[in-house]
Specification:
The protein is an alpha/beta fold. The chain has one domain: 3-Layer(aba) Sandwich (Rossmann fold), CATH 3.40.50.150. About 25% of the residues lie in helices and about 25% in strands. It has helices at about 10-20, 30-35, 70-80, 95-100, 115-125, 165-170; strands at about 55-60, 65, 85-90, 105-110, 135, 150-155, 170-180, 185-195, 195-205. Strands 5-4-3-6-7-8-9 form a seven-stranded mixed sheet. Strands 1-2 form a two-stranded antiparallel ribbon. The structure holds S-adenosyl-L-homocysteine.
């Protein structure tokens, strides 16, 4: 598999057909983005033969790159439009950031592990997304106040509650998608309108812990 020039495009097409279209991913821009972003670049070369399979993979620091379906599902729920400013909490491998950049967004992504952020930065550069993704190391539960407000916010680690700082940094008309819970987690969709903030429960999920001031205080 690890041949120079091997681009995994057939594996990507297969992934999109069997894992995304066959389920409930219908947003054509999202399907196209997952067919385009070279997911294998975001995982260790020893895992390249599994890069397009239907499960998460380890990325170091006891963290994971999400299952392709979950990346697609959350991207679809966000309703991204080109030019939108998006805050992501939990850069991890950088794969979700690349998918959002491929959808035309300007991405601001925060990661608490400096080495993961640095590795993600290198891969985003190699894959051509670096100019659309700004990275920061720190506690993402506090958001990125200097860049607020954001049209969309996505959190890719699960905390015990919805961080108030993130709700505060969401633009009016904005949407936020995040997993919430400890032993069992659910995706929550937050919509901010001029009248107030609306919350909705969505599917059950399994994410690593969101650790920070407005997340879990310890416990990786
Ligand atoms: N979106 C990632 C998935 C990352 S897994 C991808 O596409 O690969 C979740 C990440 O959230 C981990 O890297 C973890 O270190 C990070 N994380 C957990 N709590 C955080 C916090 N408070 N601020 C920023 N990152 C956090």
């Amino acid at each position: 598999m690890n041949l120079p020039g091997f681009d995994f495009s057939l594996q990507r097409q297969d992934m999109v057909r069997t894992q995304l279209r066959a389920r409930d991913i219908t947003d054509t821009a999202v399907l196209r983005a997952l067919e385009t972003v070279p997911r294998h670049e975001f995982v260790d070369p020893v895992d390249w033969d599994e890069a397009y399979e239907d499960h998460p993979l380890g990325i170091g620091c006891r963290q994971t790159i999400s299952q392709p379906y979950i990346v697609a599902y959350m991207s679809q729920l966000l309703r991204v439009e080109p030019g939108m400013k998006i805050l992501e909490i939990g850069t991890g491998s950088g794969y979700q950031s690349a998918v959002l950049a491929e959808l035309g967004a300007e991405v601001f992504s925060v990661e608490r592990h400096a080495d993961l952020s640095e590795k993600a930065g290198k891969v985003l550069l190699k894959t051509g997304y670096a100019d659309k993704v700004k990275l920061k190391v720190g506690d993402g539960t506090l958001g990125w106040p200097e860049e607020a407000p954001f049209d969309r916010i996505i959190v890719t680690a699960a905390g015990p509650k919805i961080p108030d700082s993130l709700v505060g940094q969401l633009a009016v008309g904005g949407r936020m998608v995040l997993p919430v819970g400890s032993t069992s987690q659910r995706l929550r969709l937050i919509e901010k309108t001029a009248e107030g903030v609306r919350e909705e429960n969505d599917i059950a999920v399994v994410f690593v812990k969101l650790i920070g001031k407005e997340g879990f205080l310890t416990g990786e």
